[in-house]
Amino acid sequence: MASERPGWRAGLYRLLDPRARKQPGLSWLNRLIVVLIVLAATLAVIDTETAISNAHRAFFATADLVFALLFLLEYVARLWVAKENPHYAGKRWPALRYALSPAAIIDLLAILPTLLAWAGGGFVVLRLVRVMRLVRLAKLGRFSRAWLYISEAVWSRRTELQLTLAFGLSAMLLSATALYWAEGQVQPDKFGSIPRALWWSVVTLTTVGYGDVYPETVVGKFVAAVVAIIAIGLIALPTGILAAAFSEAVQRHKDDER
Amino acid sequence: MASERPGWRAGLYRLLDPRARKQPGLSWLNRLIVVLIVLAATLAVIDTETAISNAHRAFFATADLVFALLFLLEYVARLWVAKENPHYAGKRWPALRYALSPAAIIDLLAILPTLLAWAGGGFVVLRLVRVMRLVRLAKLGRFSRAWLYISEAVWSRRTELQLTLAFGLSAMLLSATALYWAEGQVQPDKFGSIPRALWWSVVTLTTVGYGDVYPETVVGKFVAAVVAIIAIGLIALPTGILAAAFSEAVQRHKDDER
Amino acid sequence: MASERPGWRAGLYRLLDPRARKQPGLSWLNRLIVVLIVLAATLAVIDTETAISNAHRAFFATADLVFALLFLLEYVARLWVAKENPHYAGKRWPALRYALSPAAIIDLLAILPTLLAWAGGGFVVLRLVRVMRLVRLAKLGRFSRAWLYISEAVWSRRTELQLTLAFGLSAMLLSATALYWAEGQVQPDKFGSIPRALWWSVVTLTTVGYGDVYPETVVGKFVAAVVAIIAIGLIALPTGILAAAFSEAVQRHKDDER
Amino acid sequence: MASERPGWRAGLYRLLDPRARKQPGLSWLNRLIVVLIVLAATLAVIDTETAISNAHRAFFATADLVFALLFLLEYVARLWVAKENPHYAGKRWPALRYALSPAAIIDLLAILPTLLAWAGGGFVVLRLVRVMRLVRLAKLGRFSRAWLYISEAVWSRRTELQLTLAFGLSAMLLSATALYWAEGQVQPDKFGSIPRALWWSVVTLTTVGYGDVYPETVVGKFVAAVVAIIAIGLIALPTGILAAAFSEAVQRHKDDER
């Protein structure tokens, strides 16, 4: 079979795996796959708007099947070329090893629902399927260096991020306790318990401030003001640290490439 | 005609193009044009408030025409001096080449609507005309170094900005999906599809939080809280990176000038 | 008694005090105590939600007592090993000295309420007890380096933080005065005095923006817009400074450890 | 008179002007004045809350007079010691020159209203007086280095701040225009003119988001989402730049002091 022709397989592997190319950037096949994933995700998003999708049922159903078949083709191709991957060199069952890698499982999860729904899936599973197809977006990450940079940034500052996250969450909990104490009696449905007051905490300390919950008494407003001024600063710490680390990680890689 | 007198034309060119001057800063003519553009834009903005503009119809109409004529004069002057521009030196049709440059097209777009409206434009085009005149503001950019710095900052960090924007938009989409799953059944008009839930995503993750949409169930609030804490950090990444890059770009130019 | 056997006491001291260990990290006993504190705090938080706690009264009461007894055991153990603490070496009454340290007082406060409530505490004190038990969370700080880093960061930039806080609070007060002047007559219940307008100030300048108070007149909106654009920048200054200082403090300690 | 005794005057001058002291920090007299100003400002703020001030009319009136007399005493003392100020050395009329300096005018403005109100001021001027007394707070600035640092930070980055402010305001104006175009017909009272849409712009791009104005149509929401994601980043630029510059200014002074 095709597996007898290593030339073809090696060529396809170079087209599929960006790390196997000599030039930087993506091959035409990878570019095509990126476009397909973005198109499939966009369609999956619009599909949830029943006002649109019900009016064009046939189109959405066909497009869904076409994308599923294309991604199935890509999945099979990736299984076939796994033998060329230097990562599995000299190991047995390269295709199986690849199939059990997280990236391959995401790929499979993105195809299966549509195929199952066509093979006889009922109405109940439909809703879940729609959302799951968005997992296809995660494949975009495999093509870009973004995941590498972000994970490097997070790893290099893991101490700071852990500490500031712990501080932020403690600040959130203590703010909720303060408001539970100050407003719990006046607005029992909104501040009547610490878990309820936590919703106020999150909405306020992230500065979203929907306006569905806010203190009404003078004491509550005073406590909320003091808490907000102190805690908002703590909540913003991780973002500042992450931004600096991310910028550093990208600059380091640029220097390496020179 | 005037094109026979290169002394006059060269002098006017030096008055109009800041790059042709030896001293830093703007010539008196450029300062005047900046003031005219700001005045014209302010008037265009106030003009949209019909309570004011209808009461002073004659004043606004006259001012509009005066500004259009002044900008027409400037446009013709710029066409005439294009021959002096070293950028077009030795090339044919300098005036035509200039007229096709983006800056000149913006200038023309800012004049045309008023003239067309006076030449016989009807009622329907009026609304569009008002808004289009704001394009005049973009001319301000040509006089300042701001565009240069911003574009340099964006270019020097294009990798980071692309990656963080992609992350931010993915975070937005995944948040919308999570809330569509959690609240879609309870508030179908607000979270009943992913495109609808995206409005919640944008309003929450930018921390604007109007309060027109927010989760109401316990599950929805929990999902929204987790999503908000994680995603707000991601959304803030590009801003931090852009601020650092912009500051660097300006400092670099200051060092050059010394 | 046990105090005759210094080997046991010294071993227990090494298990309890992270600074007495040679290896970095926490001993198994300290890890266990962290887990217990997190569990106890989580339970105390859920306990305030009467819908849940009333349905499982027996479980919450038992868990509360178990945690109190475990923390009592820990408290007594810490008193017993105080003699081994080099901090109190050569001083008299080491256990008493330890008992008067802030950390030990927090520990005692976290145990006492439950024991008092069981010993015969009535209904009135119950509410206060629930909230006070959250103080147990503060014990987490003793195990981590977070407090050290945060206090170092705050201390190294105390000048900047003091100044920017003073500026931020002044900006808040002046904004409130401006809105009191602009909207006081129109919305007397919301802007009728500077203390009332301060609530608007806090909610706006922290960008929370609940939507319970906002200017309604044209003058009020204009003043609020100008004030918001200027003052929000001032309010954000301390956060930026603190984030940079915190990141520096952590990096400095990492360099020391190498 | 007293002006014959230069020893006393020179001593008082050293107590009043922090720059005349050899040691860093404030003299006991300056500390007292700071406390008096903070007390007076706090009282002026509480005084606007008529529910409190009417119930304690006599107390507030007396306190007001006492503070005014104390500040009058300080004002006269500062006029008297102006002769000692090296800034006015060898110049004529040092007291008059001092009286015309901005700091002295602020001092006078903070005293005059109360004295005028007592000398026979009517009911109408009362409201203005209350707010004006807050100007006393500005005197705090003279004692601290904060104004120096902030003005240095603003000055060292004036180019960046000007450019980013211009960008931010343009982004605000263009956002308002976009929403005026998208929502003007549907919500004429909120988006019916660009000045009205500007209120939406300010509230959204500062991420305050009261919730009194927001787009309701699909087109409006789409435009608002795109505009918000782009423009919020631009609005945040000046803050980031100012925070960095302020931190630098303080560090530079610390190095100088060593």
TrEMBL record, chains A, B, C, D:
<dbReference type="GO" id="GO:0008076">
    <property type="term" value="C:voltage-gated potassium channel complex"/>
</dbReference>
<protein>
    <submittedName>
        <fullName>Ion transporter</fullName>
    </submittedName>
</protein>
<keyword id="KW-0813">Transport</keyword>
<keyword id="KW-0472">Membrane</keyword>
<keyword id="KW-1133">Transmembrane helix</keyword>
<feature type="domain" description="Ion transport">
    <location>
        <begin position="27"/>
        <end position="252"/>
    </location>
</feature>
<keyword id="KW-0630">Potassium</keyword>
<dbReference type="InterPro" id="IPR028325">
    <property type="entry name" value="VG_K_chnl"/>
</dbReference>
<dbReference type="GO" id="GO:0005249">
    <property type="term" value="F:voltage-gated potassium channel activity"/>
</dbReference>
<dbReference type="GO" id="GO:0001508">
    <property type="term" value="P:action potential"/>
</dbReference>
<feature type="transmembrane region" description="Helical">
    <location>
        <begin position="101"/>
        <end position="129"/>
    </location>
</feature>
<dbReference type="InterPro" id="IPR027359">
    <property type="entry name" value="Volt_channel_dom_sf"/>
</dbReference>
<keyword id="KW-0851">Voltage-gated channel</keyword>
<dbReference type="InterPro" id="IPR005821">
    <property type="entry name" value="Ion_trans_dom"/>
</dbReference>
<keyword id="KW-0631">Potassium channel</keyword>
<keyword id="KW-0812">Transmembrane</keyword>
<keyword id="KW-0407">Ion channel</keyword>
<feature type="transmembrane region" description="Helical">
    <location>
        <begin position="222"/>
        <end position="246"/>
    </location>
</feature>
<feature type="transmembrane region" description="Helical">
    <location>
        <begin position="58"/>
        <end position="81"/>
    </location>
</feature>
<dbReference type="Pfam" id="PF00520">
    <property type="entry name" value="Ion_trans"/>
</dbReference>
<keyword id="KW-0406">Ion transport</keyword>
<feature type="transmembrane region" description="Helical">
    <location>
        <begin position="28"/>
        <end position="46"/>
    </location>
</feature>
<keyword id="KW-0633">Potassium transport</keyword>
<feature type="transmembrane region" description="Helical">
    <location>
        <begin position="163"/>
        <end position="182"/>
    </location>
</feature>
